[in-house]
Amino acid sequence: MSKQATSTTTGLQFPDLLIYRGYAAPVRIEADVYDLEVVGHIPPELNGAYYRCSADPQYPPLLGKDIFINGDGMTHMIRLENGHADLKTRYVRTEKFKAERAARRALFGSYRNSFTDDPSAAGIDNNTANTTAFWHHNQLYALKESSRPMRLDPLTLETIGSWNFHGTLKSKTFTAHPKIDPVTGEAIAFAYNTPGYSSKDIDIYVISPDGLITSSETFEAPYSSMAHDFMVSRNYIAFTIYPMVNDWERVKNGEPYFHWDSSLPTMVAIIPRKEGVKAIRWYTCPFTGMETHSFNAWEEERDGNKLLHLDHFFTASGWISQFPDIRGECTQELPPHAERWTFDMASTSESFGVKRIFNQIGEMPMVDPRYLMQRTRHFYFGTSNVDFGPMLDMGPKGPPFTCIAHFDEVQQKMSFYYAGPDSAPEEPYFVPRSKDAPEGDGWLLTLVGRRSENRTDLVILDATCIEKGPVAIIKMPCRLHEGFHGTWVPAAQLGF
Ligand code: V55
Ligand code: FE
Q1: Does residue 141 fall inside a structural domain?
Q2: pLDDT by residue (tens digit) across 360-398?
Q3: Residue 223 lies in a domain
Q4: How many domains does the chain have?
Q5: Cβ < 6 A, ligand 1 pocket
Q6: pLDDT of res. 397
Q7: Domain-embedded: residue 1
Q8: If you placed Cys at 255, which of 250, 269, 333, 477 could pair as Cys (CB 3.0 to 4.6 Å)?
Q9: Structural domain harbouring 92
C-alpha cells in the first residue's frame, strides 16, 4: 500500500448524528435543472414561481453537533410556465456563508450564540437566512428571525444583501412571519430580541406597498423569549408569548439560546392596529404551552360582543428536539392542536375562551392568503394519519408528516391527501385559481420527500378535492433539503 492510502488523516465529514444522516443529510448542491419530469398536467394558470427556504449546513458543525434550524439558508425555486417546470437551488450568500467558505470550515458555533464562535467570526453577521421565502413590494427575501432580511434576485436567486428598507428598519432582527394585508397591500411585521441579542422589546412594523416602514412601535414583553409567529386581524395584532426563554447568563455560559421553562406564564398581548401599543391588553393563560404557527385572526360581532378569534396550532410542550426543558418536565414533544382563542374586546374580562377548531393534530397551517385577517372557512395543514399509512421515523425537527389535510369548517369535513409510503409532505402553500376565485378555489403546492428514493417531488393538489390525489407531480432528480416556509409569485409580478 502506498503511504497516501494508509494515511489516518480524515477529510471533511459530517458527524454521524440524526440531523446529518439519511434523508436529513446536507444536500449542498446548487442546481439548475430545466424541464423536470412531470406526471399529469401542470395547470396552465400556474404561471409563476414557487420559492421556499431550507437549512442546509455548508460545513460540519464547529462544536461537533448542531440543531436543525441552524443550517445555512438554501433557497429553492421552481418556475412553472405553460406546463413546464424548471428548478433552481442556491445558497444565500450570507456573511456567515462567505466567511466559512473562505475558511473551508465552520466558524460559527451554536444557534445565535456568539460566545461559542471561533474568534475569527467576531463581528461577522451570523444570519443564516434559512426560514421563509417572502415576497412584498416586488422584492424577494430570505428571512431568519435572528437577523435582518436578505434580499435575493428572484430570477437568479443571487444574493443582493442584507436589507433595512431604505434605512427605516431600526431593529437588528426581523420576523420570518410577516403578514400581508390583502386589503391595504401593507406588510405587518415584528422583531424580537431587537438589538440582535437578549431583550424584552418587541417592535411592530407596518411596511408600505412600496417597501418603506411607515409605522414602528415598541412594547415590552414580560420576559425575553422566542416570538416566532403572530396574528393579525383587520383591527388587531396579537402575540402569544410563551416560555421558550432566552436567558443571557445561560447564553454567555455557552448554553442554548433558548430553553423551555414552564414556571413562567404563557400570555397573550393584543394591540389595536389603530391605537397602537399604548392600548395594549395582556391576558395570562391558565395553562402553559407554545404556539407553533398560526392560521389566521378574525373578528365577529355576536350578541353585542366584539369577538376577536385567534386560530393557531398550540402545544402543551416546548420544542425539545431543538431546545432543552430546564425543568426536565417534558421528555417528549407533544403534538400541536388547532385552537381558537376567543376574546371579547368589548368587555374588560381578563379571560378568554378556548376551543379546538378540529380534532386532528398538525402543523404548518395555511389559509387562502387573500382572506387573511378575516374569517376563513378552509384550513390546510400537514399531519399524519395512521388510517392511510404508518407514521414515519422521527426526523431532526420532529415527527414528519405523511398527509396534507383540508378542514372545511362550514361542512365540518376533514379531507386527506396521503403522500404514499415513505413519503413526507411539507408545508402546503395555497394558490388561488384566479384573482377573484372564491375562497379555497385553487391549488395546494407541497414538496414531498420520497425517502426511499432520496428525492423530492413538488406535488400540486386541487385544494377543493385533495383526497383525489395530485393534479401533477413534478419530479426532482435529486433531494431538496427538508425546509420551512414558501411562497408563490405569479409571473405578472415577477416580470419574467
Ligand atoms: C423556528 C424556526 C427557526 C428559528 C426559530 O419554527 C423558530 C420555528 C427555521 O428557524 O430560528
Ligand atoms: Fe415558521
Answers
A1: yes
A2: 999 999 999 999 999 999 999 999 999 999 999 888 888
A3: yes
A4: 1
A5: 55, 69, 130-131, 145, 228, 484
A6: 81
A7: no
A8: 250
A9: 18-494
